[in-house]
Design brief:
Length: about 230
């Protein structure tokens, strides 16, 4: 059977990146959920979308730099970093916002059109300190991991939002079927609304950067009030 281009990369990489060994080692020294003081290195994937902790990320990969990145991440069980593009494009060079999210690959497949399909899940947030572009176009960033938010029980006044969210996620199909649902967690509810609401990329980025789960829920409710009317969103 003829191997696909991506399968060949999994068996034998077209070139070897020593820096990703360093990335894996430095990330393994980190305590999950804790902030880091010393920067660690991670491959970066700038996108026109915001990835939130605990959220799904479907991707279709065709650029060689990202095919090799995904191959390396799978071989080493390592994450990559997702950042929202501020200017530029996904194909080529781009400048990004500074706060992003680690992405862990949980599934991949080869499409009938030959493109690689990947599903990743959002992990810990990070702040980009610096980035260096490699000859193949892949950017490697020095990042500081940001501490996870403290768990906040969803306040009574926001429980109607959880009921709305439950109905919406049930209608979104396979992407959300296996998602661990935490409707009593204010941070989780806010993140899920932020990723599915039709708000601007800048607003989505603000939700990612917000360290206060209640502040994020206030923004969500304000958007719902605009779309549905205050009496319906409560």
């Amino acid at each position: 059977m003829k191997r696909s281009g991506f399968t060949k990369r999994l068996v034998k990489l077209s070139f070897f990146r020593p820096i990703l060994k360093e990335t894996q080692a430095s990330l393994s020294d980190c305590v999950p959920g804790k902030a880091t003081v010393s920067p660690v290195k991670i491959p970066l994937f700038p996108l026109r979308t915001v990835l939130y902790p605990g959220g799904p990320l479907p991707l279709r990969i065709f650029e060689p730099r990202y095919l090799d990145m995904i191959s390396d991440c799978l071989k080493r069980d390592a994450p990559f970093g997702v950042l929202l593009i501020r200017s530029g494009s996904e194909v080529g060079s781009a400048s990004t916002y500074q706060v992003g999210t680690l992405a862990k690959i949980i599934d991949w497949y080869q499409g009938s059109d030959g493109l690689l399909g990947v599903t990743a899940i959002g992990g810990q947030r990070f702040r980009l300190m610096s980035a260096k572009r490699q000859p193949d176009g892949l950017s490697i960033g020095e990042i500081q991991l940001l501490a996870h938010e403290s768990h906040h029980l969803l306040p009574e006044e926001y429980k109607p939002l959880a009921r709305i969210l439950a109905g919406v996620l049930d209608d979104l199909g396979r992407l959300y079927e296996s998602l661990d649902r935490q409707y009593d967690d204010a941070g989780w509810v806010g993140y899920r609304f932020a990723e599915i609401l039709p708000i601007s990329p800048e607003q989505k980025q603000s939700c990612l950067e917000a360290d206060d789960a209640i502040e994020r829920l206030q923004l969500v409710r304000k958007v719902l009030d605009t779309v549905r009317g205050p009496e319906n969103s409560a």
